[in-house]
Queue: 4 jobs
Job 1
Amino acid sequence: MSMPLEYTYPTAALLTGGSYSNQELFTRLHAATDLAGVWSASDDQHYCGKWQVRVYVDGQAAEPRLTRLAPAFQTTEMECGGVRVAKTFLVPEDVAYRHTVYFLIDLENVSAEPHTIMLTGDISYPEQAWMQFSKIPDLYQKLKKVISRQQDGLVISHTQGRENEVRVIASQPPLQQPFFDDKGVQYLTDPFILEPGEKRTLHATMTFSNQGEPPAVQHVHLDGAVEEARARTLAWWDRFLRITDITTPSPVLNRGLAWAKINMGRQRVHYPCGWGFTNDPPQDVLVVRDAAWFILGSDYLMPDFSMGMLELLLHTAVEPGGKMTEYVLTCESPPYRYDYGLNVNDNTPLFVIAVWHHYLTTGNEVLTRTLYPVARDAANYMLSQRMGQQGLVYCTSEEANVWGIAGWRNIIPGYQQNGAVTEINAETVWALECLAELAAALGFTSDSDHWHEQAADLRERINRFLISSETGLYVVNIDTAGVRHDQLTGDMVFPLLAGVADSAMARRTLQALYQPEFWTPYGVRTVAKGQPGYDPEYGMRLVGGIWPNLTAWVAYASRELYPEKMVEAMENIYRICEVPVPRDFRNVVPGQFPECMHGENFESRGMSLSPWMPATYLWVALEGMLGLRPRPDGMEVTPHLPARWHWMGVRNMPWRGRSISIFVADGVIYSTEAVTSPLPVEVYEEDITDRFGGAEGVIALRRGEEVAVFIPAPTERQVELHIPAEITGRERTLRVGLETGAYTLLRL
């Protein structure tokens, strides 16, 4: 492995490559940097199923040796006959036309002899099934046929029956003798001589359009335009990664948090009806539950994206009566919604929580006043579903699988989770408390009192009726037949997340979740090993497998009582993302959080890139470890750091229309924002870190003529700090040596 934001592996050690995207396109790659699929958000259509590019040196194929995974691109390095080859795939950012993908082939002749270079391409347009990916192609996409032609050096292909669906290919060197069939194109390029010591970059571009040929032809650029797109994309990702730059004493967490942001950036999708992301890319399914969890993290990185997604949900996801639907098909016109026929779900309270969180972190009162009636109706709807003498929120379904499971583990075949479900009731309390705070902030005092009263009553009933007499812990549910389900599952974390459990119950619950029946080196099992029905693989790993988002929830629930376990859980989550041989764990991709894993051999069995996990990871770091707590009147900071940690920092974090920086060092908060805290707080006027040469993790804050420079050391390091003349009167370079886990604070 290379430096934190790039991973380099032998190509043979990878089963698959990365997932790269922009707001219009989603792509998947093979380990050798060949394209394994292109999907468009404009119309939920697949435009390319395969594009394999091979390089020949004197007629011999260059074989892949190393693959490099970076935020903006993937590169496979080869060497053949004295010629070094680097094949790079790029999805452009910050360009005029985003329906574009590029291959860039960098060549260098390091031998004393000239060599003949030629490229071949094998393209299949229909979506294909690949053993490396869990997603099964739609039959319609697999059966697509195309008509292709060569014109003015371009290859132009239309989908039969969808003639406005177009792909255009350009290449430098030019394509030679392309062969067309109704599935795609095979081609050679003109051969050329690469002289000793010569370097050359070749380009291949594919553009897409659902508006016919003109847009795709107009934007199929080569040569300088491709290099400009590469430079603009690298610069875009560099700027993006500077937002919410978090530093901790754990190098594993620092890498994980940086890649969490990268993967969040890859999830942004602009659908025809607005901004969103999907639970199973690529597709147009926006699940309200996943959107709500995502917003808790994206509010701290991409608040405008959070706002756009809330607006989309406002206009598309509300069912009659106030319940939030399960999911929305966002490329349909009008968008189609479906709720599985459940009378209650977790989407509804989670939406309320997301509305509350977005308001507190952004201060967007205009949007919030529009959303408040929807959130109010959602809360009233959940309260209307309180039934029976127990007065708990009640799921009436007698179905199974997604039609009969109220809660997040809703894709278990043949399984039911109905009646009084602990998860749903706890999330309803959480939502009511959030809504009470939101109502007070907006001036609806009587509403606020009402929500507080309802939350207190429901909390009391949960703790009276939903605790098992056998285990002393929360039950999964009391079903519609009155049967109590005492099985030990990870779902018992929800009363802790929601503030329903008292301190004693929280300790008992967490101690149970820390036992080896739950706790593993790569995360927390969904069901404890040895429990009835336990299976490490069955039901999408939801009855004994490992889902990293559950581990993150347990981490967050541990923040006050057991911060050491919080950090351990977060390190466990990311550990699988940088194992020595990823293919030993199946479709693990370095830097990408997997969806779920087998509960015993830890093989990745779902998506190679979990859509929702990165945002939750960021949320736990900021609100769990650093202890940020957005409040109507500002921010509260109560760090929850393990005893061995003496510092943590974040800079350039979005907060209510501006950027703020905070670091905590040995019990003192240093911040560019006036925050409340049980610790002493020193407030500074601005972050001037960029004037100090960009040393990793450094945060420099100014107030008046005083500058505080925080220099952390996650590992032993020598820091060379460039101090500008404006700070001390003359330009200086300061060298600081630090041991692992240490820091220094300079006051200039």
Job 2
Amino acid sequence: MKYSAPLDGLRAVSIVAVIVNHADPAWLPGGFTGVDVFFVLSGYLITSLIAEALERQTFSFREFYLRRVQRLIPNLLCMLIGVMAVSAIILPKATARTHGLHALWTFLNASNFFIWENLGGYWGIAAGSSPLTHTWSLAIEEQFYLFFPVTMVLLWRWRRAAVMPVLAAASLASLGICIALMMTKRPDAAFYLLPSRGWELLAGGLLALGIRNSGPLPCRYSKVCGWIGAAILLCCFVFLDEQFSFPGFITLLPVMGSALLILSVHGSSTRLAVFLSAAPVVAVGKASYSLYLWHWPCIVLSRIIAAQREWRMENAVLAGVAAGVLCGFLFYRFVETPLRQRGPARRQRLGWIAAGSLVALATSAWLNMRPLIADIHGRFDSVIDSARPYDTRRSLDEYRKMGPLGYSYDVHFPWVEEWERDRWRNGGFHIPNGIAGPPRVVVLGSSHGMMYGRIIDNVCRERGLPVAFLTVSGAHTAFFSSLVDASFSGPFDSCVDARAFDEVRLDVLRTWQPDLVILADRWDACSLRPEWVEERMREFLRIVGPHVKTVAFVAQVPAHIGGDHVNLREVVSARTGSASDPLPTLFPDSRDGLRREMAERMQLLCAEFPHLRVLRPDRLFYQRDGSILYAEGRTFFYMDDDHLSDAGSERARGMLTQVISEACR
């Protein structure tokens, strides 16, 4: 296939957009759509290569996959080994173990499945704190490379005229799957999986076949297509952000812009083609794969190091970008370029790749086999979390199978009597406390409502008040809008459950007419816009106002900067030499201001809605310097980065007792 410099230039534009967005989304909100440009380009190039070889009757599966191995694997192995080595040095063992496991999934071309099941949404805190999150797109492309060549060869040999119609039908089917997943509120599946993303690569393939059959556009049409495509991509980079339903119909924009640009620069000498063919631009484009591999781990690890040493986060991000760019060019020059050659000594190069694979596998195995001890100095009492019985979605048997969640392996979960799954269908977890009649206190929300369950349960028992819990973990369900969070239904359940959940809660509130409804959720994960939460709260208060005497909004406690994939006892142990050392200072994450603003907006709503009360347990966990009060003496107040342990929730007993007493006189 004839080399096309402008395509490398388009790669350069895309990787720059991705890096800028990953450094700070505020700088280029839609820069993440550069990945969609890569998808279209990959489909275009791979289809062109296969069609050219089939036309000449020189296509070889062995040669095709060997070239993919030489092109993609060496640099990837270096990046994985580097991430695991740095994780083993600077991160707690549980976190390093997860990175090692993620590296194994990445090596097996299944990183997108690992991220989908374990890290959640692309813009979520967990995904943003993992150094291998960016490998989801590599997994999609590599999975595409496994199936697409076989399909092309079979179609070409069976009925060549059917190639384009079949690929077009497959592309439309994939787009349909993507839109269906978005409409049923499964954005994570739509974002990470090949069936819902394959249409972007197939669009590039269809473009390649179309150009092959019809030839390049006339010059005047090339110019128009080029400028329209450039304008579309520029608008995507600047104006799209995580608030859009992405992927979905909106993804047609970057795909269309990419296709128009490729169509414009193919075999033409327009101004855009000349710009994209400039030597510096082409140099960045040639190293784009390496830059993509290295920039994100360097940014994430720089943030982690900055958090540990209390450096300025802005400087850390810039240092991470610089390190990522430097590593990208170095590994492109000294690893990727030499090992992708096909001439003499090719067997030796493949031997080096095999040796690197063994090193990566051994490193992953070592990280996963290291013993885990969180509190190595024995300075804290056992951390207890009694929240699980208040989950009205999962059963005790499900929790037994799950065991302690990865980063809370040292937390004790006391087992109680059996409870069934989906108790919410029958009105939730209803505790009559010896009183006939409907519940007078109702708790709504997520695991953040569950973590206060023991305290609310005890206070209601002491006062002889019937209480009901309609709380579920793994979703943001405080308001009557569970459909905005696909995690409620899980990847394999019907999203009808989420609608039914909202209907059941509204029906029981109308029937019970409780004295008090307590709302507790992870508000900073519901939305990144405080005004969205405020508007939802207004809507909620208008709906339940005629049926509820008092509504209590529970502000979210500060969350640790390390994210929910870090064990805080490990962090503390790593920063202290003995049990007598002072506790290290731990600061809240970047969403701390967002959480405070949400709580302040709720307090302002009290003037408009007199039956609203705002509880501020967050104030109990701040120290004077703004750091988190996460422990005192031998007592540890946090289970993980944002959930309180039993000892931590106990600190909020006073304010919960007061609001229950006032509402239920």
Job 3
Amino acid sequence: MTTNNLLLVITLLVTLLGCRINGEDKQVYIVYMGGSRGGGKDSVVSSYVSLLSSVLGSRKDAESSLVYSYIHAFAGFSAVMSKKQASAISEKAGIVSVFPDRLLKLHTTRTWDFLQSESGLPKPSYKTTGDSIIGMIDTGVWPESPSFNDHGIGPVPSRWKGACKGGPKFKCNRKIIGARYYSGTGNLGSAKDMAHPLSSRDDLGHGTHTASTAAGSVVTGANYYGLANGSARGGSPTSRIAVYRVCSKQGCQLSDLVAGLDDAINDGVDVISISIGSGFQTDFLQDPVAIAAFHATQKGILVVCSAGNEGAALYSVENSAPWILTVAATTLDRDLESDIILGNGKTLKGHGINFSNLSRSKMYPLVNAVDIALNNSDPTDASNCAPQTLDPGKAKGKILLCSSNNDYGYVESTKVGVQGAGAKGMVILNDSQTTVGYDYGTFPSTTLSDKDGSEILSYIRSHRTPVATILRSVTASNYKPAPVIARFSSRGPSQFTQSILKPDISAPGLNILAAWIALNKSADIPPGEKPSKFSLQTGTSMSAPHVSGAAALLKSVNPSWSTAAISSALITTATFTNNAGAPITDSYGKKASPLDMGSGEVNPTRALNPGLIYDTTIHDYLLFLCNWGYNTSVIHSVVGNRNFSCPSHATDAKISDINFPTIAIAALKSARTIKRTLTNIGSASGSVYKVTVDAPRGLGVKVSPSQLAFSRISEQVTYSVRFTPSNTTNKRYTFGAITWADGTHSVRTPFVVHIGDQDHSK
């Protein structure tokens, strides 16, 4: 979720790219053939054309059908085919999967200071190489933004193999070291209008915002028309950025995204950041992002993805492959306060962004929208201020009180309805939206909680001529409690397996200030202001680059760390309490569970020195695929060799035994023992870690041994956890954590256990 209008447009455009050729319905299909096969580009492409020829009938047809050849990280291609032809090619030897191309959707001054303050530690002193590289798979960037200046940054790393192919007037520097754009599906006849501009330049703002959040240079005096003023920087301000523009105003074409991932892996990035999702889930070898992320992991590249904005229901999390670091969204300790003053002198603290030109000195009539409904309008629609439901003659010049449902996009519809009726401003009652900070632009608006809504309704009913005014937004600091899990943030577990915990971790995703494009021509720009170089944006799109930046920082400080070491360090050191000293909660005030937030909010300071890690290997991920249901021959194609065989009696339940930094059990009906292995990366002189267990009622949790001794770096020690349910007739999720501490380090492993038969409610 980024700009409000963009969200509304994109959600309507998640459709298959199709065309009609020679009387047949055809579209782009992606053909996945497993691990990279090596060889020169020409020979690989020729082999793809030959394979296509066997189905399409001629080499000429195959060459014109081919959209992309994927050759660097994995083998495969995308091509225009009919459904029948795609089915035929799926039967060919060496084909792992074939699936249709799809249109995907796009899912800070205070941020990093807040995360530092939540660590409870002094600001760390460390040396970085400055050579870590983040690949941003997004809408491109605005390279002239001050967040991408390269002052004080050294030469481009010699290992970089990418290129600056950003298009006309796009210049790279020592911060933005590479740029590519993709528009392969733009050549398909009726689909031409979906082609991306032939440039890596961002004309939406999303990619600029995410890239600067991850690795933006320090910019003093950053703000959004006076809001959230301070010094903006990315999580790893010395890291480099490589830009892969795969998205346009219509969305993100899957075949373009895969091409960008293929190039990024070959170019030599260390971290790939993806704030894109499909809005639905598919199995792991039918999901190109999961496929590419697996091959990136093989090559030592960490892939970080947003969890999605489909919360707060269970099973809504996207990008849920275990080798992806999946990020949920939280709030900051900063509120954007837009107050309403009633005629009786009472001030109610509203929330949201508005640049109202109203003042305290003049009040306007205040009415409940349902009381000025048109005669033929549905009362509920009128109460929600839906377009064309209100009497313009009774609405003009007044401030309207509107109810609203929990859908983020509906707020925009409410605004359209109120403005269309000629009202002077609006107050929306919606508990779940008070933490979102919706951007109303210059139209005087604010959002109130249901509690404050009761007070304003009481005022309207008890006064013959109720009046009010709405003030321009201001920044409120040190807001408590924070962080809070955002309502829109997608929840786990994955639809495909409850035996892994998703999301993995959380990060700030509401009202994040970061760089923006210089093309804003909106009428909502405050009078006399120029387009802002920064913007406040909301969504898990904003959360993912926070973790990408943190991961790049860890890689820059510790160049030898593997993707597993970085992931484990981030997960096991995450913060699980808020700035009021209590457990992190959701937007309704309930204690957040690991299904809401993963291990907790990312804590880069603590992650720099985790002490111990769970060294999850490629072999572990192959075991996951076996246990999930893929056979040995399929996995041989994925890996690219035959040095692995699936164990006998592989089942989904055995996924829980894989050495992940978290523990998830899908259906605990009797006592079960889980093992985990920790690797020492902390003290070379020896250390002893003692365990503490946070166990829920009704679940016995016994860890053995109760302490672990390490005498050298890289030493590994295994422990076991026995889970024993007291009652399995009451099916339920239970949550807890196992923490190992040596007085300096604290290594926390959250667990999710579903007691009783596996839960399939969605």
Job 4
Amino acid sequence: MKLLDLPLVSSLLLAALPLLVACAASGRPPNPRPVAAAAGAGAAPAPARDPHSFARPEEVAVDHLKLTLRVDFASRTLSGRASLRLAPHAASRLHLDTRDLDVRAVTLDDGRAAATFRLGDPVRFLGRDLEVEITPQTQWVNVDYATRPESAALQWLTPEQAGGGKPFLYSQSEAILARTWIPCQDTPGVRMTYEATIAAPPDLLAVMSAENPTAKRADGVYRFAMPQPIPSYLLALAVGDLQFHPFAGNSGVYAQPAVIERAAWELADTPRMIAAAERLYGPYRWGRYDLLILPASYPFGGMENPRLTFATPTILAGDRSLVALVAHELAHSWSGNLVTNATWNDFWLNEGFTVYFERRIVEALYGRPFEEMEAALGRESLESTLADLGPDSPDTRLHLDMAGRDPDDAVNDVAYEKGALFLRAIDEAVGRQRFDAFLRGWFDAHAFRSMDTAGFVAYLNEHLLAGDPQLAAKVDAAAWIDRPGLPASAPAIVSAAFAKVDGQVAALAAGTAPAELATQGWSAQEWLHFLGKLPRPMPASRMAALDDAFHLTASGNDEILAVWLERAIESRHEPAYPTLERFLLQVGRRKLVKPLYAELAKTPAGTEMALRIYGQARPGYHALTQQAIDRLLDWRG
């Protein structure tokens, strides 16, 4: 998933208290241990329990889910049954994660035997433990339930909010929001297959992270199957007025009618990306790889739901300049979906691997200079984050301690960019051919399994570093994984293209008129680097000259536009304010809108403007974006 936009939560002690109580009651250790120094060359220790789940999979684990749900736009609810098949066990109780679910009944096996169950006390952001009495002979647990309109995973859009003539529903389960629409063992350490029957309005198409239809059914009833085992955060559903455009081979794109042709053109390189990924790290193991372009309220760049990536419409720039996002979500089909972080403390195993893999795909298709620009932008973002967090912040380590915090609030681009730099450092230390063989071996050896950081370190020691203490010292996994900040040996990222851009920034600072700068043929990445290097703030007259020369306020690339609008707020470039307001009202991608609200909030006049706009925009934002902006603006509503 392309996050890279979440703030660090500073209220750790207050947030930790209810979880520590819950951990004590369940016997779960709340704090992970350092892993890099402790792990030897042998087998990895057993994974730590997930501090973000009530489930006890070591006692009994769910291995298959059968969903039967009805979609009701009028009440904004899903209702029906979740039947959970249990792996062989000797347990007397099953613990499930729920949050804001109305549990109506629980039965066992064939559904005729009522089960004794209880819902535990609510724990902030974790929800409630659904404890069901079972016997060692119990094979199925059936939960009849309904979601609530405020389910944090689900966004119900009116036709106007969806940007079309019909309503739209989509889910966002990562990190721990699957429990807000399905009772489940909501931990990435548990994998299950699933099937579903979804009853939707007959004029809408339902799709899931599963084998999907490509056309609407007259009765509105759709059946799905996901034969490969997945963790709960990859459960996904969307219902809307969708059309499908196939690409060559095993891929295509779904979108609303007004968007489908643009999406088909923009994403036409998807089959080439799949082929490049397979050449690097082995076969794609999920059957099809399709994409779904969601309405503009979608809070993230993309979500790697297996078989069906959910994606923001902001990638439709009209010039295919932002398709690295597709490479990222595709790469998750190996790093994340195939081999999954066992807990959210190990998030870097998903995202650091995926950023590294994404850039290898980009390099294979578009060349090393393009990859260097992407990597340089990532390094700039990482250094900004490290400066904001501070050199000694524990949240700048790869292996985190997130007990007591909501994973959706505590993730930043350290997992992405520091993780990718660590793999780049290993690549440079051992050589690409050897590292590629190692990485493919990692994916093959742990396919359809959940792994923690200790498991990776053990595999690294055994299969790449064993018998070579000098190489182990050069890689220095502990420095990356368990220590804050960046090691001094972190790879430098050099982009020749960006060096030329820096020359134009210097020329501008020396007085060259914007219209005289050598910007012909610049890529979106070069423009993003240029805007990031501008003096802050700029004189209003210089901002006006830049806008006159390059029409930045009219940019059709939302990534460029968002950065330009942030500069406009800093520099009081008021001619851009009408575009700023339209952007905040129309776009819900958190990475793009949060910095704009943050910059507005630095002045009294800007805060007043931010609150006025947010009051109008908030109903159209997903709950995850609302959560971030509510805190930022101290929203009282």
